[in-house]
Amino acid sequence: MWWSGKHKHHGGNVQVISAPDGWPIWVSPVRPGREHDTTCARTHGLVDALNRLASTLDILTLTDLGYENADDGFRHPVKKPKGGELDDAQQTFNSVIRGVHAVAERANALLEVTFKALRRVSLDPRGITRIARAALVLLHLEHGRTT
Q1: pTM score
Q2: Does 95 reside within a domain?
Q3: Integer Cα distance of 41 and 26 in angstroms
Q4: Start and end of every DDE Tnp4 domain (predicted)?
Q5: Which of 42, 50, 65 is nearest to 18 (CA)?
Q6: Beta-strand pair 12-18/2-9
Q7: Which domain holds residue 44?
Q8: What pLDDT is attached to residue 89?
Q9: CA atoms of 77 and 6, how far apart (whole Å)
Q10: Which of 65, 67, 118, 144 is deepest in the core (most CB within 10 A)?
Q11: How many structural domains comprise the chain?
Q12: What does the pLDDT average to over 6-10?
């Protein structure tokens, strides 16, 4: 399973895909921070690509509720019904998803903590994109994860 999530910069939304161990492997071009996660992912072709991966190789993508309507290739926590409760199976499913989510959030944390330039950047989207992509490459080189 892969994890898809976001890293919100000041004024920007970057989609991050991590490997199952929480290591970031891809960052998207920056979209406006006000855009919904699914909109950003669709803009970059990410939703279609990950749905194809799910249908051809049976590899699902775990997400947060920001991807609630992103099709069958995505798994996200079950939303609590208005005025209702989740049953035991739904609560267990959510616990598993959230446990994996914690590992996957490592991808965002690695990028932001390692590179101070990503913490409160307020450049134009192209500038933020260049910084995020450079940070991803440098992180991989620094930790010998280039193979």
Answers
A1: 0.74
A2: yes
A3: 12
A4: 1-138
A5: 50
A6: antiparallel
A7: 2-142
A8: 96
A9: 16
A10: 67
A11: 1
A12: 49
Digit-coded pLDDT (tens) for 39-65: 888 898 889 998 998 999 998 888 888
d(Cα 82, Cα 24) in Å, to the nearest integer? Answer: 35
Whether 1 and 20 have beta carbons less than 8 Å apart is answered as yes
147 in any annotated domain: no
CB 129 within 8 A of CB 29: yes
CATH number at residue 111: 3.30.420
Q: Which amino acid is at 7?
A: H
Helix ranges (H only) for the chain are 37-43, 46-57, 88-114, 125-142
CA dihedral 130, 50, 40, 23 (to 10 degrees): -40
Partnered with residue 24 across adjacent β-strands are 18
Structure-token pair, residue 28: 């998207």
* Other C-beta atoms lying within 10 Å of the C-beta of residue 91: 13
Buried b (16+ CB within 10 A) or exposed e, 29-61: bbbeeeeebbebbeeeebbeebbeebeeeeebb
